[in-house]
Amino acid sequence: MNVARLRSIIIKELWAILRDPRTRIILLVPPILQLLIFGLATTLEVKNMTLGVLDRDGGAWSQEVLQRVAGSPNVTRIISLHSEPELREAINRQRVIAVLRFDPHFSADVAGGRGGVIGLVSDGRRSNAAQIVSSYLDQIVASVGASVSPVAREAPATASAGALVLNWFNRNLDYLWFTMPALIAVMSAISAMSVVAQSVARERELGTYDQLMVSPLRVGEILVGKMVPPVLVGTFITTVYVLLIPFAFGVPLTGSVILLYCALFIYLLALTGVGMLVSVLSATQQQAFLGMFLVAIPMILLSGYASPVDNMPGWLQVIAHLDPATYFLRVTEGVFLKAMPAGDVLNNCWPLALICAGTLSASALLFRSRME
Amino acid sequence: MSLALAESFDARRFGALLVKETRQILRDPSTALIAFVLPLLLLFIFGYGVNLDTARTRIGIDRRDGSEAAVSLAQDFVSSRWFEVVDSQPVSILRNELVAGEIRGIIVIPDGFGRDVARGGGSIQVITDGSLPNTAGFVGAYAEGVRTSWAAKHAIEQGRVAAPQAIGIEHRYWFNPELLSRFFLVPGSIAVVMTMIGTLLTALVVAREWERGTLEGLMATPIGMGEFIVTKVVPYFVLALCSMALCTLLAVTLFGVPFRGSPWALLAIAAVFLIPALGQGLVISAVTRNQFVASQVALLTAFLPTMLLSGFLFEIDSMPKFIRLLTYLVPARYLIPQLQTVFLAGDDWGLYLPDMAALLGFGTLFFAIAIRVTRRRVA
Questions:
Q1: CB count, 10 Å around CB of A57?
Q2: What are the sequence ranges of the domains in chain A?
């Protein structure tokens, strides 16, 4: 490696990206918009839900249940329905996510100690939300039930039976606290890989690849030069996120920022390696973009961002463990919420280093073989 | 300049152009990549990989009580189908495993648990990993479930009858009684596939033509603007429908997703959605005229909103108000309910038609903008 040559290739690569004002804007502005829009949108909680009620009972206990349901912070609207066809239509047209149905003798059953049963019809097309809504309603109904149960009143006032649930690291299970740190892993991956995937393919498409070949630059120097812009772009975006997430969204940053940046550097190199491989294998920019897409989508979806890796079938978990984003996601969540110690961060860094070494040496080999 | 909408229409010329555009697309290897490889990949990921139905969660148990009741409760956690007990240690040690992500929850059975149970009480502590809120919610709820059923069983063993519940809920889930998240994720991924072909691929390919100047060459010929636009989009329209058909076939045969509507309804739904999707692709290419910028704009304004703001993965109702308003500008938002309905519920034109009207409105708008921008660029 020759320092002067290295310097000039780095300047050239940075220039190639930052020269075009539209490219500059597209690289730097959207990640911030994404944090605002997608960060706030991606929640698996269920809030502001609209429920339907078909109350054929109209007695004291159905009113009691309805009042409690209406008082829940997760329910914004309750629509009164008057017949089975209306119920069917409300569900079918997705005007409501679920309908509570009270039979005519519900209050009498409750008062008579025979146990009242509420029918709950949910829209299984949105099964995840429907399940969450059901569990909210179960809790509300159980608390109403506890106030009527004669058994509960008779029971001696000793230690109560139950399970006390403590949510560590995120007491209120605020979904935002998960999404925000996860977005660092996702967005730096998209930006860094977009940049690097274009780099070699563009040279080839524009014909400047041949000029690079006849220049005195070594393969290693060219590759290092091409690694600088994605690492800088990824670092910039992460820095913006690390500043915004705690201050604008109130997500705690409990761990060490230095550890986060160390892991980030290895993660960005690993992403560069993957992107470089795609770029070297593509003949045109279009192929490079699509190839990047082909790699980035599974990378993001299998990293644990969309759903936990634990839920995947075993063979997919193996693939997820080849995914750099899986490891970095653990680090960002850990450093933000869990004050993750250095040992645990390191445990997630060495697989990243292996991926990085593998992909970078593969692309160097390919690059050289195409050069000769 | 020969570009005018009022240009006389020539069927032979139109046919020849259509053949040229189709050949151009079929020759390009990236077409096969995005029209067939990517959809299959997405379908597999959403069919197998993205799973919101919690599997067995790894937990640790800290049992501080040696009573028979505590041992039998701990045993119930071990044999539960919801949990995999991987370690039995004091909380101080399990805590490190929770930080490292090796376990997702800790069950603490406190000292004196057996004594409390004998007195009619007996509570346990459940510690969850809040950094994964969805899993944490399930761990809390299922741990409570294991304890409740253990308590009922234990009471019967002790010769006591468990108190009947005063009020209960009988749950019924229409359209998807087994609550498989695959049933809504796989149809939803068809929306993503059509967005990719309609908007992303179109934007990319047409932007390349702008970049290389081949569009100007085409426009110097006597074709009309209408012909030009139609011949550009028709091949992608057909391609997207083929890809949709392939996905539907796989959804039904491989993933066992029910198909309760009619194929014609699905075809109509897909065709109507493709109008705004293709229009958006044309607008992006004409405005950016640069492949890299076009790809990023398409990613940001079409692909990501379809994934995240359409109600496909995340409930729109749960989003903050201004984002809920923003979702009305995402065409896929009107497609997702239709797709879920045609697969799981059966045809309901009362639900389809308003959504289709909205999509046609977007389509008209995008095509009008595309024509305007293209004409200005050439002039």
A1: 22
A2: 20-42+173-371, 49-154
The whole domain housing B266 covers 11-50+180-378
Q: Which residue of B has its CA nearest to A142?
A: B167
Which contiguous run of DSSP H or E holds residue A276? helix A257-281
Neighbours of A260 (CB within 10 A): 24
Looking at the structure, do residues B94 and B203 belong to the same domain, yes or no?
no
Q: Is B47 in CB contact (< 8 Å) with chain A?
A: no
Evaluate whether residue B363 is within a structural domain: yes
Question: Does B205 share its domain with B318?
Answer: yes
How high is the mean pLDDT of chain B?
86
Minimal CA separation from A29 to chain B, in Å: 11
Which CATH class name applies to A49-154?
Answer: alpha beta
Number of domains comprising chain B: 2
Residue whose C-alpha is closest to residue B72's, from B5, B189, B155: B155
Is residue B3 in some structural domain?
no
Q: Is the pLDDT of residue B217 over 80?
A: no
Task: Verify that B213 and B308 share a domain, yes or no.
Answer: yes
B33:A290 CB<8 A: yes
Assigned token pair, A24? 């500059």
Q: Which of B250, B300, B318, B242 is nearest to B274 (CA)?
A: B242
Chain A residues touching B299 at Cβ < 8 A? 190
Q: Please report whether residue B164 resides in a domain.
A: no
Query: How many of the other CB atoms lie within 10 Å of CB of B159?
Result: 6
Q: Is the pTM of this model over 0.80?
A: yes
Mutation pick from A26, A27, A34, A299 vs chain B, by most beta carbons of B within 10 Å, is A26
Contacts of B185 in chain A (CB under 8 A): none
Q: For residues B203 and B260, state if they share a domain.
A: yes
Going by pLDDT thresholds of 50, 70 and 90, the confidence category of residue B161 is low
Whether residue B151 sits in one domain with residue B21: no
Q: What is the CATH number of the domain that holds B147?
A: 3.40.1710.10
Nearest by CB: B345 against A125, A142, A285: A125
Tokens of A155: 């029971």
- With a CB cutoff of 8 Å and minimum separation 6, the contacts of A7 are none
pLDDT in tens, A77-105: 899 999 999 999 999 888 999 999 998 88
Q: Do A38 and B308 touch (CB under 8 A)?
A: yes
**Contact B173/A124, CB-based, under 8 Å?**
yes
The verdict on residue B168 lying in a domain is: no
The beta-carbon neighbor of B130 closest among A41, A132, A168 is A168
